[in-house]
Amino acid sequence: MKIAIAGSGAMGSRFGYMLHQAGNQVTLIDLWSEHIATINTKGLSIETAGKQQFVKIPAAFPEDVNDDFDLVLLFTKATQLNDMLNKISHLLTDNTAVLCLSNGIGNLETIKKFNPHLDLLVGTTLWTSELIGPGTVVLNGSGYIEFQAVGNVSHETVIKVNDVLNKADLDARPSNNVLLSIWKKACLNSVLNTFCTILDCKIMDLRKSQYTPVLAKRVVDEFEAVAQAKGIPLTAELALKTINSSLAPDQAGDHYPSMHQDIASGRHTEIDYLNGAIARMGKELNIPTPTNTLITELIHAREDVVIKN
Ligand code: NAD
């Protein structure tokens, strides 16, 4: 299959690599010139279990790509999605399926607003990846994908996308309620990512504080209230179960979450698509969301301190 990865950072590179290894014709599309140049000169550097390999996969700016793709995989940060869609609009033909696995609440709306007629699939993934420098990703652990078609996507397209992901060992599972998965993941990120960023700690360090469960419950209760009003069957109990299992001693990572890494490298975070989305919707629905509002403001304040422009 001919596949373009639009947004080839940590996750886009990981998926691009795995799809390439499975025999697909992959093009990595990105906007970071140093990253593109490094991949094209040295190859994409993949580090797994301390071993490094260089893989030849073409990388390019959107405007330099002119091809018909069967699948475009959107893997930007939520903040970058609209800009990327505009830059790759020439690649989105009637024969192209589009799959978005980025984190956050609101990506579906962004894509539908951009073009309501796309063959669109959205989902979440528990795969992880780390971009440690231009052209270099570190792959750890395993994961899976849950995805669902939005609107009038043919059954054949869903099967084709499912097959191509599974042949690349990405463990794809079509879902009947992907919005619940997206909200559950956003709730998890709204606790772990923001707490680690505000407290400047790794995920495993959250276990040390007696305030973690207390604060997590406040975030999650507001998520439940807004979700229920929106018809999303997310409960506080379900969200807390997911959070608690991510904080279990054998799971809680010895690493900083991506929001912490964004701040460390002076970049904007996805806060407006996490706690910020709950604060915004709560306001519209007249549901109080003081905790998510405060966390959103704290992260934006942190961005103001570290981002130069
Ligand atoms: P990323 O920050 O690695 O990459 C996103 C974009 O930012 C890419 O276009 C990349 O080239 C660019 N970028 C990254 N560092 C840059 C730098 N220093 N200078 C200029 N440009 C830079 O993002 P990601 O981790 O691949 O995340 C993509 C989406 O997937 C997000 O919604 C994220 O929340 C989600 N996600 C990430 C992980 C993970 O483990 N990284 C896991 C699950 C979901």
Automatic annotation (TrEMBL):
Domain Ketopantoate reductase C-terminal residues, every copy: 177-303
Pathway assigned to this chain's UniProt record: Cofactor biosynthesis; (R)-pantothenate biosynthesis; (R)-pantoate from 3-methyl-2-oxobutanoate: step 2/2
Enzyme class: oxidoreductase
Domain Ketopantoate reductase N-terminal: 3-150
UniProt keywords, alphabetically: NADP, Oxidoreductase, Pantothenate biosynthesis
Pfam short name (any one): ApbA
Keyword Oxidoreductase set for record: yes
Taxonomy, superkingdom: Bacteria
Record-listed E.C. numbers: 1.1.1.169
Catalytic activity from the UniProt record: (R)-pantoate + NADP(+) = 2-dehydropantoate + NADPH + H(+)
Membrane spanning residue stretches: none
SUPFAM superfamilies the record matches: 6-phosphogluconate dehydrogenase C-terminal domain-like, NAD(P)-binding Rossmann-fold domains
Family according to the record: Belongs to the ketopantoate reductase family.
Stated role: Catalyzes the NADPH-dependent reduction of ketopantoate into pantoic acid.
Protein name: 2-dehydropantoate 2-reductase
